[in-house]
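ok trying again, last paste got cut off:
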Amino acid sequence: MKGKKVGLLGCLLATCSLFYATELRASANDDITGITLEPEMRTVVDRGIMQGYGEGSYKPFTEVTRGQFAALLARALELPEGDPKFSDVPQSSELADEIYSASSAGIVKGYDNSNFGINDKITRDQMAQMIDNALQYLDVKRTEAPLNFSDESKIGQTFKRAVARTVFDDIVRGYKTKSGTYEFKPKNTATRAEAAAFISRMIHTYENFIAQGLDNPPVPPVEEPPVTEPIPEPEPPVTAPEPEPQPEPPVTEPKPEPQPEPEPTPEPVPVDLHEGHLSIMGASSVSAEKMAAFVKAKNPNAQDIDEIAAAFFEVGKIYGVRGDIAFAQSILETGWFRFEGSAVTPDQYNYGGLGVTSKGVKGEVFSSVKEGVTAQIQHLMAYATTNDLPQGEVLVDNRFKWVKRGKAPHWEDLSMTWAMNPNYGTHILSLYEQMKKY
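nice, full thing came through this time. structure:
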């Protein structure tokens, strides 16, 4: 761990996973109690990252400026001092030191070399970019999730990768529409509650990443991805207090007019119900040629991609595993076979992150494309069924014995099993659906 990151790491260790341990000291006299993002906001308040305005006032729905969000990040990461740079951020500003700390760390940037836009309201895409920069500063290994927002076309190309990464980490979510889809609303300005949610989830992501490298348990039957678009979250509304129960009027009196019910809070799409889940076992419905073409459209330089796609199709057929969806899993694990930020490299022929159980672990190494694909298919079979290997097949998955056989028969069941991400299986199936339509 580099010296520049010791502050945040020390804070995390000293507080013993404070993200989860923080007591929600709710008070009927403050304006945080009862809001949708109350736990996240209390986390950053209790850590001293966000201050109130006195008398229980935290103004959760007040919009946040670029300068204020940069300051929140600098406090969260305990950044060292930085050099003055922007003409619109005078040293006399109370946010100047923190903005320059974040700027010197490469976490925030200005519109140009002299203008930061200290008082401009921060947009959701800008906030996602700053969070992504912060996690890169902390050396957190991550990958991208597929973007399924109905307004994806409105996300600027500059911000798409940051949004995809923060979506994978379940930091950035979206707003549910009446039709059941989700919008990201990239140019919406962010509130203090949303800013707090982004930062507390960022801390959670970093905390989990560090924990992987500190626990040092025996080799477990859990496969971690090198590091991974999450289920979008509804916009946080103000939760109205429940009305006091009124005594029933005498029968001779007319009953009072019913009061309109408050707007219901949209619920996120569940990811842990088995009804309607898709089985890992079964025949592929996408050809190897189409699978390879799908990756080439995103990564024209993908190494051995035709051979890899063919192997997933053929080996999957032998084992009765959905080779086309296993290929979609590898797209997610390898970042479209770019292997950027991945714990494995192309010469390992490891397309499923097998053996990457903690930070710094290189993972399994295989001798060929076919062997690497076979190991992944065998591992999926171990999760999905208690069946023996097909006759004549040799076990090449060294981690097969660690799996509790049949514990995850559906792709959705791989969430928090193959990977410690609650939306891992959903991401795989999202890529598969896109591949089918390609």
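cool. The longest helix spans residues 192-215. The radius of gyration is 24 Å.
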